[in-house]
Amino acid sequence: MADLVVSFPGGLRVDAQLGGFTVHTDQPAEGGGEGSAPTPFSLFLASLGTCAGIYVLGYLKARGLPTGGLQILQDHERDPSTGLIGKVRMSIRLPAGVGQEHHAAIVRSAQKCAVKKHLENPPGFDITVG
């Protein structure tokens, strides 16, 4: 059985069913879609930030530190020669009460993100028809 099943509900919408959930994607209206959901690439970028976020949240919770107002701001720098993302920047905004003594460990926690690790050591791809 497949880990993930991709279906095509109409227009330029493409959905993925995995683990009892459906992840919806679409293209923006200016690209011929309906703009009803994020693009697949937007979900990829979101997976980086949310993955780092769960590690940061876990660090804070494990130490009984406050989590209210925790945010990660993420932006992307494109490589002009390729048009691809050349750099991802994340800025962690910590709640009041999380001291400077935790900052380095929080950054190390964010760097443990499994999505980031897979980009650093990418899997091979085997795509077939059948």
Keywords:
two-stranded antiparallel ribbon; globular; alpha+beta; single chain; GMP Synthetase, Chain A, domain 3; 2 domains; 130 residues
Model description:
Helices cover 29% and strands 26% of the residues. It is an alpha+beta fold and 130 residues long. It has 2 domains: 1-37; 39-120, K homology (KH) domain (GMP Synthetase, Chain A, domain 3, 2-Layer Sandwich). It has a 3-stranded antiparallel β-sheet, with no helix packed on it. The protein has a two-stranded antiparallel ribbon with strand order 4-5. Strand 2 and strand 3 (21-25) form a beta hairpin. The protein is globular.
In short:
The protein has 130 residues and is an alpha+beta fold. The protein has helices at 40-62, 103-110, 114-120, and strands at residues 5-10, 13-18, 21-25, 71-78, 85-93.
